[in-house]
Amino acid sequence: MRVLLLEDDERIRSPLARFLREGGYAVDEASDATTAQTLIGLYPFDVMIADIRLPEGPDAGFELVRRIRKDDYSFPILFLSARDGLQDKLHGLELGGDDYLVKPFHLQEVTARIRAILRRGKTLTPQETLFQDMKFDWANRRFFKGPEEVHLTGKEMGLLELLSSNPGRLFTREEIVDRVWDSSFDAETNVIDVYVRNLRRKLGDSVIETVRGVGYRFPTA
User: Fold this and answer.
1) Which of 121, 150, 172 is the C-terminal boundary of a domain?
2) Chosen domain end from 121, 147, 176
3) What is the CA radius of gyration of the chain?
4) In 3D, which of 45, 32, 24 has the Cα closest to residue 6?
5) 209: domain range?
6) N or C: which end of the chain has fewer CB within 10 A?
7) Contact between residue 193 and residue 208 where contact means Cβ atoms under 8 Å apart
C-alpha cells in the first residue's frame, strides 16, 4: 500500500511516516503542495494524507485536493489538520476528501482511518487471509503459521499484503516497486528477491509463486 504523506511539520511527518512504514506501508513524504503534486504525477498512490496549511498558503492543502479531483485522481484522501472547525471539515469533504482527522491524533487512529476509507473503495485488503496452515490478521498486523506467530518486517508485510490481496494475479517487478516501495528505491538492487526469500523462509515456499523472468504471485489455493 503506497501512501503520499503531505505535512510541512517535520515533527509530525517523520514519526508518522516511520509508524506507517513499520506497519508495512510504502510512504513518500512531501513538505509542500508543489512537491506533492509532482509525486502524484510520478507514482500510483493508494491513499493520500494531506495537511491544509502549507508553505504555499493557509488553504494550500484544500487547493491541491481541488486540483487532484479536477484531474480525475480518485485515490482516497485523509485530511490531517489542526483546524477543527465544522466549516473546515465540511469544506474538505466537499472538495473530495474522504475523511478528516484533527490534530493532535494517535498514530493508530491514522491507520484505522486509512483502512476504513479503503474499505469504502476498491483497494480493500481483507481483514483476514487464510491460506493452508497460515493466517494473516491484517487489521492487527499479526501473522501465524500453524500455532506459531511469525514476525514480519514492514516491507515484508507490504509485499505479502499486495500479493495475497490479489490471489492468482501476476505482479511484475515494476508493479511491486510502484506499490510497495517509495521513491528512494534503488532499481539496480535485487531487494525484491531478498524479501521474497525472507517470506518463504518464514512462511514456507508455497506462499509466493515465481514466474521466471516476469514476477511473483500469491497462489489461488
Assistant:
1) 121
2) 121
3) 18
4) 32
5) 128-217
6) C
7) no
Residue 37 near residue 8, CB atoms below 8 Å:
no
Is-contact 34 57, C-beta < 8 A? no
The answer to whether 76 and 48 are in contact (CB under 8 A) is yes
Which cell goes with 85? 472547525
- When pLDDT is averaged across residues 57-77 and rounded to a whole number, the result is 94
**Start-to-end Cα distance in the chain:** 23
The answer to whether the beta carbons of residues 43 and 35 sit under 8 Å apart is no
Cα(89)–Cα(176) distance, rounded to whole angstroms?
Answer: 35
**Three-state DSSP class for residue 124:** coil
Per-residue pLDDT band at 179 (split at 50, 70, 90): confident
Q: Cis omega before residue 104 (within 30°)?
A: yes
Residue 158 C-alpha cell reads as 507490504
Q: Are residues 135 and 184 in the same domain?
A: yes
Per-residue pLDDT, 125: 63
C-alpha cell at 111: 491507520
Instruction: Give the number of other CB atoms < 10 A from CB of residue 130.
Output: 10
Distance of CA 185 to the CA centre of its chain: 15
Residue 198: all three cell numbers together = 525472507
pLDDT tier at 122, thresholds 50, 70, 90: low
Here the contacts of 167-175 (C-beta below 8 Å, separation 24 or greater) are 167/217, 167/218, 167/219, 167/220, 168/217, 168/218, 168/219, 168/220, 169/217, 169/218, 170/211, 170/214, 170/215, 170/216, 170/217, 171/215, 171/216, 171/217, 172/214, 172/215, 173/215, 175/215
